[in-house]
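Hello Y.,

Per our agreement to keep a running log of every chain we model this quarter, I'm adding this entry. I've kept the format consistent with earlier entries: sequence first, then predicted structure.
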Amino acid sequence: MRYTLSVALLSKLILLAACTEEVDRELVFDGPPGPNAAYDTAYCRGTARTYGVDQLREARQSGALIGGLIGALDADDGDRLDGAIGGAVLGSWAAEQGEFYEIDRARRDILIRCMQGRGHRVIG
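Predicted structure for the entry above:
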């Protein structure tokens, strides 16, 4: 059972890693991009990526704590440490994924507003 859970969790993590974050998607300009578009895009993407780092860390920590407690209390075979570790890993991952979607959308908005603030006609 534990081997099956580990394989399923690992496969989901690989699939999620392959997904493109919103901040990395191509920008849509209303007209031709300006002469500094590449430089400004790199700068604005870097700025957008810094948003939400603390929120993700807090989500991982609280998810690990709650998942660890539930895993320890719900251990079927009496191995509370093994249940706590498994619950902590799964809880951390689940909490981060729940928070990441909102942060990812906010990062895209920050990128677009940053580019517009630098004079680029970005519409999406």
